[in-house]
Amino acid sequence: xxxxxxxxxxxxxxxxxxxxxxxxxxxxxxxxxxxxxxxxxxxxxxxxxxxxxxxxxxxxxxxxxxxxxxxxxxxxxxxxxxxxxxxxxxxxxxxxxxxxxxxxxxxxxxxxxxxxxxxxxxxxxxxxxxxxxxxxxxxxxxxxxxxxxxxxxxxxxxxxxxxxxxxxxxxxxxxxxxxxxxxxxxxxxxxxxxxxxxxxxxxxxxxxxxxxxxxxxxxxxxxxxxxxxxxxxxxxxxxxxxxxxxxxxxxxxxxxxxxxxxxxxxxxxxxxxxxxxxxxxxxxxxxxxxxxxxxxxxxxxxxxxxxxxxxxxxxxxxxxxxxxxxxxxxxxxxxxxxxxxxxxxxxxxxxxxxxxxxxxxxxxxxxxxxxxxxxxxxx
Length: 379
What we know:
There is one protein chain. The protein has helices spanning 11-32, 39-51, 63-73, 91-98, 117-123, 147-153, 209-218, 240-250, 253-273, 303-312, 342-350, 362-377; strands at residues 56-60, 81-84, 102-105, 128-134, 156-160, 168-171, 174-177, 184-188, 202-206, 280-281, 289-290, 296-300, 351-354. The protein has 379 residues and is α/β, with parallel strands linked by helices. The chain has 2 domains: 11-249, Type I PLP-dependent aspartate aminotransferase-like (Major domain) (Aspartate Aminotransferase, domain 2), CATH 3.40.640; 253-377, Aspartate Aminotransferase, domain 1, CATH 3.90.1150. Helix 4 (91-98) links the parallel strand 2 and strand 3. Helix 3 (63-73) runs parallel beside helix 4 (91-98) and helix 3 (63-73) packs across helix 7. The radius of gyration is 21 Å and the shape is globular.
């Protein structure tokens, strides 16, 4: 008998752990019948403000909208520059171009996959208005290397923490969570995230009350008073039902993130025991970081053939990301060529995300590594 198909993420297992809590939370919303910006939305925003902590948190409709709203609040103009990475999800860069600004890319570190802070500082010009630092796969960029210089130049530091809710980095003796360092922090609550809803959702965190007020206006068509519009905003509100779900899941998040870390450690041990470390490079954790392993992404030889072999054996895997953004057709107008960001390009050919989620069993991880061992040892 063939073993069951192993997905990269099994949301059904997670739901079974909290089913009763979820039903109670949803029943409260249904009884209230306040589905748009109802009480659970403000309650969830307050929960996040306490958890991170941050002075202000503003819910919105998606992580993509969170990035767009954050940049809109910076009042970008045509020709302004925003520095970011080409090795990230599409929304990071599409938000920049939608506002007429120019994405300026830096390459990434081959060990952590995160953008290189030294190159960020080198790319700063008098046209730079913001830096979007992407905390990729659940690990933070070392923002302390940027903070002072950006503040001195008046450049906004925006954290794309869509994959990093709950991750942290030591600031001296104090851990600081993703989304609490920069001027603005952007989160996604897409169902596959470590803190994921049962539909779309997002959030922007900020340090200043004025920024929060601006964001709250922008998310309702640029309106402060109903039907009076100071600027053109978006229709981007966090759904009350999603907020209720997210309040439940936030209570469990740290425990679930710890289970992910344990699973990541176990993968590393299994790869070592299988003598696969010449073929497979496990993800590295930068000193001072608390990695939450939103994805468990390895670099590996013969990536495409390995992925096909895993699939044939009933094991899912994903490639994040197969084509860096500077090579995407829609961004050809930026004038980049192959070789401009060599590390991002080499990662696109080698990275593979293996199954990782809190409920992943040790025996399932052993099965994954055994299949990979058979692939590499078959001659």
